Amino acid sequence: MRGAKSAKWVAIAGVVALGATACGGGGEAGSDDMNKGSADPKGIVTAQLSEPQNPLQPANAKESQGSRVLRTVFATLVDYEPGTGKLQYINAESVEPNKDSSVWTVKLKKGWKFHDGTPVTAQSYIDSWNWSANVKNNQTNSSWFQDIKGYEDVHPEKGDPKADKMSGLKAVDETTFTISLNGPVSYFSYKLGYDVWAPLPESFFKDPKAAGEKPIGNGPYKFVSWDHNKLIKVRKNADYKGPNAAKNGGIDFKNYTTADAAYSDLRSDNLDWIEQVPTTALTNYKQDLGKRAIDEEYSSIQTIVPAFYGKQFKDIDPKVIQGLSMAINREQITKTVLHNSRTPADSFVARGVIGYKAGAAGDIVKFDPKKAKALIKEGGGVPGNKLSIQYNADQDHKPWVDAVCNSIKQATGVECVGASKPTFQADLNARDKKQVKSFYRSGWVLDYPVNSNFMRDLYGTTAAGNTSGYSNKEFDELAAKADKAPTLEETVKLYQEAEQLLVKDMPGIPLWFYKVNSGQSTNVFGKIPYGQDGDPIFTDIQVKKK
Amino acid sequence: MGRYAARRLLQMIPIFVGTTLLIFLMVHILPGDPIRAMWGDKAADPAQVAALRHEFGLDQPVWKQYIDYMLNLFQGDFGKTFGGRQVIDVMTEAFPVTLRLTLLAITIEIIVGIGLGAWAGLKAGKAADSGVLIFTLLVISIPVFVLGYLARFVLADELGWLPPNVQDSTNLAELFLPAFVLAMLSMAYVARLTRTTFAENLRADYMRTALAKGLPRRRIVGVHLLRNSLIPVITFIGTDVGGFIGGAVITEGIFNVQGIGNLLFRAIQTSEGSTIVGVVTVLVLVILVINLVIDLLYAVLDPRIRYA
Lengths: 546, 308
Hints:
The complex is a heterodimer of chains A (546) and B (308).
Chain A: H1 2-28, E1 39-40, E2 44-49, H2 64-73, E3 78-80, E4 87-89, E5 92-97, E6 103-108, H3 122-133, H4 151-154, E7 169-173, E8 176-180, H5 188-191, H6 202-206, H7 208-213, E9 221-227, E10 231-236, E11 250-255, H8 259-267, H9 285-289, E12 293-306, H10 318-326, H11 330-335, E13 342-344, H12 369-378, E14 386-392, H13 398-412, E15 415-421, H14 424-432, E16 439-445, H15 452-459, H16 473-484, H17 488-505, E17 509-519, E18 524-525, E19 542-544
Parallel strand pairs in A: 2-11, 14-15, 14-16
Antiparallel strand pairs in A: 1-19, 3-4, 5-6, 6-8, 7-8, 9-10, 10-11, 12-16, 12-17, 13-17, 18-19
Helix pairs in contact in A: 10-12, 15-16, 16-17
Chain B: H1 2-29, H2 34-37, H3 46-55, H4 62-74, H5 87-122, H6 127-141, H7 144-158, H8 172-202, H9 205-212, H10 217-245, H11 249-254, H12 260-269, H13 273-301
């Protein structure tokens, strides 16, 4: 009797659950057409966001969350055309270099206003950059201004700043100013699309802290409110004059604790866009969402980097690393372990970036166990015949690290294990202190869409992003030459040459490019358009008329 | 009783200082530099890192940091988060949310748990008793995250009866699902506990006396039996309140409840010492007070227990 009862209970529960799954799975997919109906220009988009770590000041958003909000509230001088990565003027009328690209002249479009009604002038930009670069103001992105002359005065390596203005910034008139750089940088204008370069109204400097709670910008949306850990509201700026005016009435950024929670709200139409489908749903989100599933590549790359300061790779023959690279079955791992959430990398530069060349890395990223073995043997073998890949266990890295290790083991017989650090902080700590023994995992999302960002900023001997101790004189010289090139085309070309040096010298093993696996609700009209950095273009999202 | 309470309150001081010191030290042992971690995979600018470390006092020796922290604490200043907000503000946002969730969960726990337990206890050995036993066993054996995801999947995602997540914690309908999941496990324990004491006390002498006096059954069960059986149950529920207020990290995470559990979890992830120590300090106080209240409640429930 007792047994019968419990068995029945379990059986009923099971049937209910199964039945429910079956209905849901079949009914939802494709049942709605996202292009049916019409767009409501006043419709509000709800989007996922985690609590921004820092106040909403333009140069203080190192993480993507704060940056997502800032980009709706502020308009910068330029932006990048989706797809091509080409420069598009937003607040600037023009940004022109002098002959050797060391002095840039910016002309602003006339008649622009901040949300508080004050005009956007050349001085708004100069004051903003001077304030943001100042080491005392503790902006996490302050080093972005280091190309500008006089940066060392406001941001010395040690001690208090000597000045509060960078000598390189000069206002010519109301709407024109010049930027003198420490040296020629032919792609400087491409850097200007990042949020750190936004202008600030006068009211900001009176109380920067309060302004960080309720930013006043010049962008397509006005900031309305920030209910911490819950909701950030921005609404359409009707007076906006830029080319990227909002096609919706505003955005409600809702806070979610987990990707699962957000996904579940997306499925019940309480949320229009999520950042990323939870790992648990990667296998079936396309069935769940049908056409509403989003699967987009963005410009970022994952690599594993040998620690050249360590014993193992100090004087390694690059052939060994080439061999190891060829022992990794990228196709299979991205398909199985990563559920198509990445695509195999075929170069050191991520796709979508200017200067990306399909297949630039050539054969060294192709899976070929025979050649891999031969190359490793030719290069004198892996010292100790044992590798490890350091990663942080608080993010979802273990599955692919294990898969990469297995692939290497099977193809070459070299022993390989994952070396986990409990937290991202601990992982970074070991990397910064040069304690990594073998390989470490590294990720890089573009800062600006030119290939130099994936070359010089990562593999230059003195580059801050180079933490592996890699140094290649030839590469450094070529990079310096590229930066001084008179036109962007030539710069890009020289960096493409430099990339070939990297293929020979292997300062890292490119694994794959990241993808956004996301989805949209039935409230959204048309497909949500994406930018190169893996974030939607919020101004272009349209909401269905109800 | 007054002297007893005073003594207990005095005992709290060394416990309080000890726990805060321990937590403070533990946060400092956490590997890695939280300031450097703000830059992620990108390179950090050493000058800016140094300036920020100075801003948050992280460049001072640990003992000095602790003393500064305690001195500020006695002036009601819990310090700042890395985002520059006052920790006290962050906590006053999160505590009411958790408190609401706790109250709802405890209510469900008391009503369903004691109800089921009393029913099973009165029918000890009969089918109802076995039914409750099986049900509670089942609930106890399912881990909370399975229960949480399953409940949301079936009740919210597929059937659409309840909202899947909490956006507004003052909305009882939204809060019901997490509160229910949170209450499930404890509810099972409460039911088991109540059932046992009920069954035991049914055979007690005072029950026979009451019966012999000719009291109505409602009064026997409702007053004599219930009151005498509640002591162990109250202890359990009391510690549970403490546990719930301490934040149900998993449940709050699943259902998007922006309470203390989530706050603490996020703070630990970013090694935000000021928030961790602040929250734990308040929690230590809350749990000490709750324990005191439970101990005092014993005397109210059972006049034989006296404190001097």
